[in-house]
Amino acid sequence: MTDIRVWVDGVLVDADTPAVSAVDHGVTVGDGAFETAKIDAGVPFAVTRHLRRLDRTMAGLGLPPADHGRIRDGIRAVLDGDPIDFGRLRWTVTGGRGPLGSDRHDSDLTHIVTAVPHARPEAQGRVVTVPWVRNERAATAGLKTTSYADNVIALAHAKERGAVEAIFANTRGELCEATGSNVFVVLDGVVHTPPLDSGCLAGITRELVLEWCREDGIEMVEEALPLDVLTRADEVFLTSSIKDVLPVSAVDDRVFASPGPVTSRAREVWARYSGQGIDP
Ligand SMILES: Cc1ncc(COP(=O)(O)O)c(C=O)c1O
């Protein structure tokens, strides 16, 4: 684990050395928030938007606001030294030391920042739908909490089937999102993506793709779609901080000529606009 750089509450630590309390509420009950941002040529992308989303998750959990200054110190600390050519920057803020159950102590938050090299995204990938659902009415719907076990199970299911992602419907049977990506479908040249009330995460890449593609003249619609839209969509693509815009080459047994023309255009728009600044 030597290539993982870890900073916990002001101190750079070895990744294999325990640095968080065993009774930290993030450890015991998943009471915490996190963000993952891309590192490209040693530099983190869209940190301000990620910090804003962290604030929304902390507020949604009923936790006090995270200390942005501390997180930025941590980011500087883990990115100092040899530049990471491409990688994952992750920060996690938990409720701090707590009881073993779901109630909380009034504790100092735990701030953790990590950085690790990562392979650049593949050119395309297969996805599968999964038998489990996202609950758009859950208390944590749309929050990026450290309780990601549903995603761990679904991603393992996808990987066992040779796929890179697992697609969830919500309890209403609508297309929602993947374990760590948002999903877009192309129907008759128009790009559609589920709205935030589907229960999906407000992906930073999703919001930038919507903004930049609209600016570039691509018709983009946020609307509820049945899950079976995947059986008739002309093209499908995923977005995430690490994948950027990833063309989908197959959904379950349905294979696409990928990347399709609209996805290619969205990728080109992404490359052009994201190249204009590191903190859009
Ligand atoms: C559940 C979920 N949906 C969507 C995304 C994509 O969000 P972003 O573009 O901010 O990485 C993520 C990111 O990891 C995620 O965990």
Short description:
The chain is an alpha+beta fold. The chain has helices at 25-29, 47-61, 68-79, 149-160, 204-215, 261-274, and strands at residues 5-8, 11-13, 32-40, 43-44, 86-94, 110-117, 125-134, 165-170, 175-178, 182-187, 190-193, 220-222, 235-240, 244-251, 254-255.
Topology:
Elements: E1 5-8, E2 11-13, H1 25-29, E3 32-40, E4 43-44, H2 47-61, H3 68-79, E5 86-94, E6 110-117, E7 125-134, H4 149-160, E8 165-170, E9 175-178, E10 182-187, E11 190-193, H5 204-215, E12 220-222, E13 235-240, E14 244-251, E15 254-255, H6 261-274
Parallel strand pairs: 7-8, 7-14, 11-12
Antiparallel strand pairs: 1-2, 1-6, 3-4, 3-5, 5-6, 8-9, 10-11, 10-13, 13-14, 14-15
The chain binds pyridoxal-5'-phosphate.
Give a written overview of the molecule:
The protein is of the alpha+beta class and 280 residues long. It has helices at residues 25-29, 47-61, 68-79, 149-160, 204-215, 261-274; strands at residues 5-8, 11-13, 32-40, 43-44, 86-94, 110-117, 125-134, 165-170, 175-178, 182-187, 190-193, 220-222, 235-240, 244-251, 254-255. Helices cover 25% and strands 30% of the residues. Strands 7, 8, 9, 10, 11, 12, 13, 14 and 15 form a nine-stranded mixed sheet that branches. Strands 2-1-6-5-3-4 form a six-stranded antiparallel sheet. The mean pLDDT is 97. Bound molecules: pyridoxal-5'-phosphate.
